[in-house]
Design goal:
Pathway: Cofactor biosynthesis; riboflavin biosynthesis; 5-amino-6-(D-ribitylamino)uracil from GTP: step 2/4; Cofactor biosynthesis; riboflavin biosynthesis; 5-amino-6-(D-ribitylamino)uracil from GTP: step 3/4. This protein has 361 residues and is α/β, with parallel strands linked by helices. Helices cover 25% and strands 21% of the residues. The strands form two sheets. Strands 10-9-8-11-7-12-14-13 form an eight-stranded mixed β-sheet. Strands 1-6-5-4-2-3 form a six-stranded mixed β-sheet, with helices on both faces. Helix 3 links the parallel strand 4 and strand 5. It is elongated, with a radius of gyration of 23 Å. The two termini are 26 Å apart. The mean pLDDT is 94. The structure holds ligand AOF and zinc ion.
Length: 361
């Protein structure tokens, strides 16, 4: 345990351990709604160790998790413990500092699941200690892993100063995304495609290569289960080195914004778009999670540039025997150079299987 100076070597109580798990569950309610902000959950324990308040950060610009949990607890927070997945903010951004809210509520002990890497908000732990509050920072402990896990998109993005990148592929058992004649609609099932819309609704940016735009002219919008376009649409980005996107391309039309990234804006070697520069720019524009939807050459380039964090593959029970693969080209020349992934999850979607991986960097 990282024992914070002034807190003594206080053990984490069982109730606090459970509260941190619960706080991570609460935080997960915000996934897809809080970007560019983190997901955060908070549980307030009363003086007898029972849960007296719960809250989470529901949307960017809205009240922070701590404020919602303190409101839920009311006077029962006095003398109690706040268990939070992320270090409380110590700044006035769109809302006031949570450190001051915790102090004002009479909280005597705070358990922090992960430290806040966002400089303007940091310093919460030190501020609480200065106010005489016991602070237990479990970010380096195994029990802190739930807090890092639920917020891993945001924490990874902040650490890398670029958006978290999820590469999505929909392919046949032999790894192909189209037949030799170019037909590709629909390889994966309706159930898989509905899950892709759920995934799109979780990100703030969708990215495709120019080849995909020219071949499929996708709308790249998020639709709800009823097929209606959702009110909040991610930014759509086309990686288009030589500026071939037709002015009538569907993804340039609304709703939401679109960005055509060319080699003029982001010059890279060989007249290509510098993907790392594009990602860094997207980060400065407040983008924290990119869903990379192909095509195969953009996927290879992003993997080679070590810009992919997760891979989500929908595998359809179809064999084609010919046609482009989900990832084409790139620098891998021998098995030892292969991009290595770690399997996180396997789930069935209708006749298909969804495989979720993290890239082992
Ligand atoms: C949140 N929700 O529950 C906590 C956050 O844009 P603001 O003013 O709301 O501030 C956002 C920053 O505050 C965020 O990047 C993070 O560093 C810190 N804590 N943010 O959105 C929360 N606790
Ligand atoms: Zn806050």
């Amino acid at each position: 345990m990282t024992v914070v100076p002034g807190s003594g070597s206080l053990p984490v109580l069982d109730a606090e351990r459970s509260a941190l798990e619960r706080a991570a569950e609460l935080a997960a309610n915000g996934i897809g709604r809080t970007l560019p902000n983190p997901v955060v959950g908070c549980v307030v324990l009363g003086t007898d160790g029972s849960v007296v308040g719960e809250g989470w950060h529901e949307r960017a610009g809205g009240p922070h998790a701590e404020v919602n949990a303190l409101a839920d607890a009311g006077v029962r927070a006095h003398g109690g413990t706040a268990v939070i997945t992320l270090e409380p903010c110590n700044h006035t951004g769109r809302t006031g500092p949570c450190t001051e809210a915790l102090i004002a509520a009479g909280i005597e002990r705070v358990v922090v699941g992960a430290r806040d890497p966002f400089e303007p908000a940091a310093g919460g732990v030190e501020r609480l200690i200065a106010a005489g509050i016991q602070v237990i920072d479990v970010s380096e402990l195994a029990i802190g892993a739930v807090a890092a896990e639920v917020n891993r998109v945001w924490l990874t993005s902040m650490a890398n100063r670029r958006p978290f990148v999820t590469l999505k592929t929909g392919m046949t058992v032999d790894g192909r995304v189209a037949a030799v004649d170019g037909t590709s609609r629909w390889i994966t099932s309706e159930a898989s495609r509905a899950d892709v819309h759920r995934l799109r609704a979780e990100v703030d940016t969708m990215m495709v290569g120019i080849g995909t735009v020219l071949a499929d002219d996708p709308r790249l919008t998020v639709r709800d289960p009823g097929g209606l376009e959702s009110a909040r649409q991610p930014l759509r980005v086309v990686v288009d080195s030589t500026g071939r996107t037709p002015s009538g391309a569907q993804l340039l039309a609304g709703p939401g914004d679109a960005l055509v990234a060319t080699a003029t804006n982001y010059p890279g070697p060989g007249g290509r778009v510098d993907l790392a520069a594009l990602m860094a720019d997207l980060f400065t524009r407040g983008r924290r999670h990119v869903l990379l939807e192909g095509g195969p050459r953009l996927a290879a380039a992003a993997l080679d540039a070590r810009l992919v964090d997760d891979v989500v593959s929908y595998l359809a029970p179809i064999v084609l025997g010919a046609g482009p693969a989900a990832v084409e080209g790139g620098s891998v020349a021998t098995l030892a150079e292969a991009h290595r992934l770690e399997l996180r999850d396997v789930t069935r979607f209708g006749p298909d299987v969804r495989l979720s991986f993290t890239v082992a960097h």
